Amino acid sequence: MTATTQRNAPTFDELERYRGELTGYCYRMLGASSEAEDAVQETLTKAWRNLDRFEGRSSLRTWLYRIASNTCFDMTGAVQRRARPMDLSQPWSLDGSFGEILPEATWIQPVPGASMSTSTWGAEPSAAVEDRESLRLAFIAALQFLPPKQRATLILREVLQWPAAEVADLLDTTVASVNSALQRARATLDERTDAAGAPGPIRASSLDEELLERYLDAFQRYDIDALTHLIHEDAVQSMPPYELWLRGRDDIFAWWLGPGAGCRGSTLLPTWANGSPAFGQYKPSGPDGRLEPWALIVVEVSGDRIAEMTFFLDTATLFPLFGLPDHPDDRA
Predict the structure, then answer these.
(1) Contact in structure between 92 and 117 (CB atoms under 8 Å)
(2) Predicted local distance difference test score (pLDDT) of residue 203
């Protein structure tokens, strides 16, 4: 390392300033909060160990993103593509079956917070709508269907708003190749969106506190009639790690009145996940009906109705990640 490089080398604190935005980038690349944290830690460790290679020809930010991209490329080659239940099969019939429990690595993982902007990690609900849109579970899942370099190109260009020339420099390619990759990535995402058949995108006005309060109240009272007025006719419900997923309000409510009736008497604690409202669900399943963690419910809204509900059942991992207590009365 030369004297000039030593004098201008970034400090560890300067590297750490990028942890939040790198986490957002790696999460979108990998579809799992745990893998994103691992990728960012490896990125910062590699950067610290190789400061002598940073010559200042590009910005520190670009250099870190190059390391993060290569780390994610290596990780995507070593694991299977993560997905949602609706990416793997057709809707289930109401036969009372939950389907198989598939390995954790099968599923998109939720991430805490209402935003993952370039400057914050787990920001407040007032974060930009565009940032929330790029964190939707459906969007994160659709990204996983792109080849890794197309995925990186789309995230860098359309989510993080990097210039094409800077993306080309980061990926060691040409501007023409970046534009071509972006065009192909957009076409694939359009196909995935059409195939998903979602009722519609989230908008800022959709995050209606009154609607969410009515949903929380109706769910805790297990008032199916009240919930009928809150759920979109074409709503979707899934329950990772089970293969089960349902489409349509009638099938969802038939499930709640049948196999899902054990949720009666639950308590919900509000939180945020993937830019959407979410709830920690505690079901009376312990000794003497004690409330115990059952699911992290991520709720997506379209217009004035609930459009999608994902019940993530891996509470042992997710409740600590989201700062949810073991019992609802324990929340500070």
Answers:
(1) no
(2) 45
pTM for this entry? 0.87
178-208 residue pLDDT tens: 999 999 999 998 887 655 544 444 444 446 7
Domains, the chain, in order of start with CATH, read 1-79 (1.10.1740.10), 204-330 (3.10.450.50)
- CB–CB of 197/234 below 8 Å? yes
Cβ–Cβ < 8 Å for 287, 217: no
Alpha helices (runs of H) in the chain, residue ranges in sequence order: 3-8, 12-16, 19-30, 33-49, 60-76, 129-133, 137-143, 148-154, 164-170, 175-196, 209-221, 224-228, 249-257, 315-321
Quick: pLDDT tens for 245-282. Answer: 999 999 999 999 988 899 999 999 999 999 899 999 99
